[in-house]
Amino acid sequence: MEDLTDRRTVVVTGASSGIGLAAAVDLARRGDQVVLVGRDPARLRDAGQRVRDTRGEQPELFRADFAVLDDVRQLAERLRAAYDRIDVLANNAGAIVLRPVTTVDGFELSMQANHLAPFLLSNLLRDRIGRMVVTASGAHRSGVLDPDDLNATLRRYRPMRAYGTSKQANILFAAEAARRWPDVPAYSFHPGVVRTRFGNESPLVALGMRLLPFRSPERGAETLVWLANQDPARLTSGGYYYNRRPRRPLAKARDPQLAARLWTASARAVGLDVG
Questions:
Q1: Helices 256-270 + 117-124 axis angle, to 10
Q2: What mean pLDDT comes out for the span 205-226?
Q3: Is 163 a catalytic residue?
Q4: Are 116 and 36 a contacting pair, CB within 8 Å?
Q5: Which one, of 55, 41, 50, lies nearest residue 18 by Cα?
Q6: Which of 83, 163, 240, 242 is catalytic?
Q7: Cα separation of 170 and 187, whole Å?
């Protein structure tokens, strides 16, 4: 009989499709107990079946909409109740938002879904997490992050600028988490330009996703899986990676003072103790 006592528990957000699902399948194939978090119940069930077909056992499924911070708080409570330890938290959920949208919590949607929600989830699970991996993007170069105004991109809205701003936040969050939580290795990475469901609301973007030479989700997930498995002694906690190698992000995205300001602003935004 297989010994399950040493199996890792890996929580993957945004696991219904794309990079998250590809990573979950790969991690399950390697023997991890994967936990899938997604927004759409039907796609989440389909993703669970994909993992089951790979591993032969049904993964746990948790539905949560990162556009609603109360969903994130409830998700954290349910995960805490279910698992004494989360060996890897893969903060992968994200979206490109094609038009200006303000969430019920009062934030620009891509900033909330891509940064504030995973920031809140990670903080609420902090004492359970063994390692954290954050899906960032080379698109961080188009960002204009201002911790004093997390809704700045709502003015004269441009989708890629808003997305890039949230991806700057991802890189800074992982770096600052590594400084504040020295016992929790934390990494961010660029998956490459991956063919996913991003931008499906736009027929033009969807057509481009089908026709242009994007990476497959499996290729995009390779660095996530690698960071989840690599010996931390061989990695730099707080580092940014691409193609399983360390990379230097844009100067603004490696500014420790900006990262500290963002942490404080994010904690205030989601109602956490700023200390």
A1: 80
A2: 74
A3: yes
A4: no
A5: 50
A6: 163
A7: 10
**Selection from 87, 73, 78, 40 nearest residue 60 by Cα:** 78
Q: Are strands 240-242 and 132-135 parallel, antiparallel or unpaired?
A: unpaired
Residue with structure tokens 């973007």?
A: 205
> At 163, is the pLDDT very low, low, confident or very high (cuts 50, 70, 90)?
very high
pLDDT digits (tens, 9 = 90+) for 4-26: 457 999 999 999 999 999 999 99
